[in-house]
Amino acid sequence: AALGRPGYITLDRSSALGSPASRTLPAMRVRAHAALARLFEAAAARGERPWVDCARSYGLSEEFVGEFLRARGVRPDEVVVSSKWGYTYVADGKVELGEGEPHEVKDHSVRNFLKQVEETAHHLGEYITLYQVHSATFDSGALTDPALHAALAATRASRGWALGVSVSGPSQPAVLRAALRLRDDRTGAPLFDSVQCTFNVMEQAAGEALKEAREMGVDVVVKEALANGRALRAEGVRKAADKLGVGADQVALGCVLAMGFQARVLSGAVTGEQLVENFGAYEVAERLKEKPEILAEVMEGCLMDSEEYWSQRSALAWN
């Protein structure tokens, strides 16, 4: 989301990426490859496999990642790559569009799934670990279409990819629980192996549903843990950062890592420097577990009403 396309809704992208005019697709490819190189270095230092999250609608994210991995001769068992289907990127490398023009178009039909799964396979096929429905909602059809569910299950069986579902919006908890009830008709097993959800110090509504998912043995991935940059400006986060002597990003990410549902947290970093700084959140999470009063102070002090949170998010401009 952060590097596969020149524009996104994260606050103040120009401070890290320069002006929109400078963010040509070749320039974004160079930036993406540089960030990936730092990710592999940082993960190797921790003795862990790096995780990269893409989507068909994240511009050229799948292409950039596939190029990088193959050029470096990375084996599939040396990296975890997830991607998502369900949106099509239509902004053609532009940051600013005309009034009412979308950057991406949503389509959760079987036809679109079958088209996009082949596109993902072309760019990343041997590396894909997890393939996710992108932002399922009650009205998108993704939760109620048996033909789609059968196609998803067939893809898991034929390609060996785990299946996931990502959710967004104020109805996240209900959509998440509905997705977790779906079953593979052939095996009776849960249809989804993983869930990806927005959770951060400001938007905490899905916390209980994520705990339920974890208790079911479903993998939990958290997106937008920095609330598109808004969490870095939250007074509670900044106070805790001063108290602990760390960066605001490390506090915001650390709070999510300290939650009981044990999420894999996507950082959203756009530079190697940001990425390395974000890795400090692991240590901060452990400190917060040892000082639960600070964790509680941040979570309680930054909490927003879910409807208000998503209303503000929808007003963020692509930049």
Overall average residue pLDDT = 96
User: Oligomeric state of the chains?
Assistant: single chain
Can you count the beta strands?
Answer: 9
Low-confidence region ranges? none
Radius of gyration (CA) equals: 19 Å
Describe this structure in words.
It is a single chain. The chain has 319 residues and is α/β, with parallel strands linked by helices. 45% of the residues lie in helices and 13% in strands. The chain contains 13 helices and nine strands. The chain has helices at residues 14-17, 25-46, 61-71, 110-124, 146-159, 172-181, 207-215, 235-244, 248-257, 272-279, 281-290, 292-302, 306-314, and strands spanning 51-53, 80-85, 87-89, 104-106, 128-136, 162-167, 194-198, 219-223, 264-265. Helix 6 links the parallel strand 6 and strand 7 (194-198). The two termini are 13 Å apart. The mean pLDDT is 96.
Q: What does this entry show, briefly?
A:
With 319 residues, the protein is an alpha/beta fold. The protein is 45% helix and 13% strand.
Summarize the SSE layout with pairings:
Elements: H1 14-17, H2 25-46, E1 51-53, H3 61-71, E2 80-85, E3 87-89, E4 104-106, H4 110-124, E5 128-136, H5 146-159, E6 162-167, H6 172-181, E7 194-198, H7 207-215, E8 219-223, H8 235-244, H9 248-257, E9 264-265, H10 272-279, H11 281-290, H12 292-302, H13 306-314
Helix pairs in contact: 2-3, 2-10, 6-7, 8-9, 8-12, 9-11
Keywords for this entry:
single chain; 319 residues; alpha/beta; 7-stranded parallel beta sheet; two-stranded antiparallel ribbon; 45% helix; globular
